Amino acid sequence: MSDLAALIPALSPTAWFLVTLGALIVGFSKTALPGAGTIAVGLFALAMPAKESTAALLLLLIVGDMTALWVYRREPDWRTLIRLLPSAMIGVVIGVFYFARVDGDGVRLTIGVILLVLVT
């Protein structure tokens, strides 16, 4: 049981509330409120260190995408997927190199700048 406890970050009740609210917003942004995911990014960044919040949010998005893939498995839009693939791959490579070279404060600053650009 102690091994499981080590996997769960020691977050304050306020941080757990922010993460839970962010997770709900991610779920809604996948279905009913596109664009609301930007709010979740900010909530996760407030609740935990920048790199950890990015990883947690990415895991949440991957699980949501895998669920969507299962639901829509019989009707894929291959043209759109093939068109999106090169940009997605480039973004992943850039993200991996950036994440490996920048500290948590740099990631937090980047998240803040991106959120400001999206809001304005």
Helices and strands in order:
Layout: H1 2-7, H2 13-31, H3 37-47, H4 50-71, H5 78-101, H6 104-119
Helix pairs in contact: 2-3, 2-4, 3-4, 3-6
Describe the structure.
There is one protein chain. This protein has helices at 2-7, 13-31, 37-47, 50-71, 78-101, 104-119. The protein is mostly helical and 120 residues long. It has one domain. Helix 2 packs parallel to helix 4. It is globular, with a radius of gyration of 16 Å. The protein starts with a helix and ends with a helix. 14% of the residues are buried. The mean pLDDT is 86.
What keyword list fits this structure?
120 residues; mainly alpha; 82% helix; 0% strand
Provide a quick synopsis of the model:
The chain has 120 residues and is mainly α. It has helices at 2-7, 13-31, 37-47, 50-71, 78-101, 104-119.
**Which H/E pattern describes the elements?**
HHHHHH
Largest sheet: none
Q: What percent of residues are in strands? A: under 5%
Shape: globular
DSSP helix count? 6
**Domain tally:** 1
Class by SSE composition:
mainly alpha
Indicate the radius of gyration in whole angstroms: 16 Å
Poorly predicted ranges (pLDDT <50, ≥5 residues)? none
Q: Gap between N and C termini, in Å?
A: 47 Å
Give the rounded overall mean pLDDT. Answer: 86
Helix content: over 70%
How many strand elements? 0
